[in-house]
Design a protein that fits this description.
alpha+beta; 3 strands; 11% strand
């Protein structure tokens, strides 16, 4: 009897295991769908199909240009660029 319960448990979570094995980008959603709606049969099939679909490719990085620096969102790297005329302010020195 314990073997049957363990087998049902393993079969029930096949979509989640499949998504984990494929390193799917939406594994959390697939697991939630599998856990909460998988018992209906339709939810299990939907989670299984979603786990088999390829993950969406990562989006292109958004490039921001501000204050003479070029920065990619999602990174901490900054590349200096040509300063714009508005960013160059005259320096005032007081002599002593």
């Amino acid at each position: 009897m314990d073997l049957v319960v363990a087998l049902i448990f393993v079969v029930y979570f096949i979509p989640s295991v499949r998504a984990q094995y494929r390193d799917h980008a939406r594994i959390g959603w697939i697991f939630a769908l599998n856990l909460l709606v998988g018992w209906t049969g339709v939810g299990w099939i939907l989670a299984f199909v979603l786990a088999g679909r390829p993950s969406a490719p990562p989006p292109e990085p958004i490039v921001l240009r501000r204050r003479g620096h070029l920065r990619l969102l999602g990174t901490s790297e900054a590349e200096p660029t040509e300063p714009s005329p508005s960013s160059e302010l005259p320096s005032h020195r007081t002599g002593s």
